[in-house]
Amino acid sequence: MHSRRLIINTTIVNEGQCRKGHVLIGDDRIERIVFGEAPRDLYEAAGVIDGEGSWLLPGVIDTHVHFRDPGLTYKADMESESRAAAMGGVTTWLDMPNTVPQTTTKEALTEKMALAARKSRVNYGFFFGATTDNVDMLPKLNRRKVAGVKLFMGASTGNMLVDDSDALRAVFENSRLPIVAHCEDSSVIARRAAEARERYGDDPDVCHHPEIRSAEACYASTVKAVSLATETGARLHVAHITTERELGLFSAGDSRITAEACVPHLLFTDADYARLGTRIKCNPAVKTAADRAALRRALREGVISSVATDHAPHALTDKVGGALRAASGMPMLQFSLVAMLDLVDQGVITIERLVELMCHAPARMFDIENRGFLREGYKADMVMVRRDHPWTLTPNRIASRCNWSPLEGHTFKWRVARTFCNGFQIYNGHRLTDESFRGEPVTFDR
User: Fold this and answer.
1) Which of 28, 163, 310, 381 is catalytic?
2) Is 310 designated active site?
3) H/E segment holding residue 373
């Protein structure tokens, strides 16, 4: 499919090590990895890319995105957002089911797969949405083709809220796939929203969002999810943890009950509402500096197993309003890797730990086949990053259709220099290299 390519003189970051080396790509696979001096035979019949001064990482796997196809494409679609992914070093994305229509039937899942095959510039997969009405379908889902089951245990769109105790237990007992849970207690949110309306009016300022979508709501729901997983033996991954208290429910090294942090909650605090307003409104809400510090600490200690984005592009017109009316969610995909590399520079985590959180762990936790690691025989999904020319994020750099970012105006020290997807250099640091290239569906080794 592709000519052989040789990347030389790069620092390879993989499986806890940083080592100077060389990577030979043959077709869509990593054919050979050599450390130290490169033997002469490595150069035979291969185009050479000199990676001097660069770091070579596995392609980022973002296990939590909302790409808006098929029904809300005025905000974003699989083409625009996968373009953003390629430009940001993300080579695989897993899409959530709360779209229009919802991915809660086999027909809707089949339609999304067909759309991705036509549109996606990098690799892709999908979650199936649990409802109170489709529990009987969960054991029948194809374990090789479906990433997992998404469970909304807090307020959501349509009929995707599952908060009845019997229905929740049925989901945990019937799913043969990993359950990814959005944990916020609906009754707590409703009570806090009523209190906020009484005190501040019909649409309180966004600074009150973390009071409504409160730490109490998160903890109550996460406790319930962890309890059900413990009782039933289900595989549980709790999405976008936001509070220090929730972290006490997880243990480093536990591969059955795990926690995800999302980039916005690692970057922002409630003090940023004054500066950024509804641009950082998301569910669960961005919370306190103490919570952010605890999340960052949990990255280092292994209590948090993976980092994703919860990429949720909205038109800016959808973000008008306050805590109750403005849409929740923000576009983060394209700049997630460079933002996390900022945390490396700040000493929050090492670059080896970043690769574990954004590449290795997502592949391992969801059993993604032959991806997420730089290993001979694995798919050549890779990203080359450099730290040599600082740059400031302006709207003209944004590939997402919504054309805004809460990080606008920030100066980054790192940049994505090249992205390789299935052995093909899809991004050269300036633009996509082939508008006709498409990714492929990932498979799950279960």
Assistant:
1) 310
2) yes
3) none
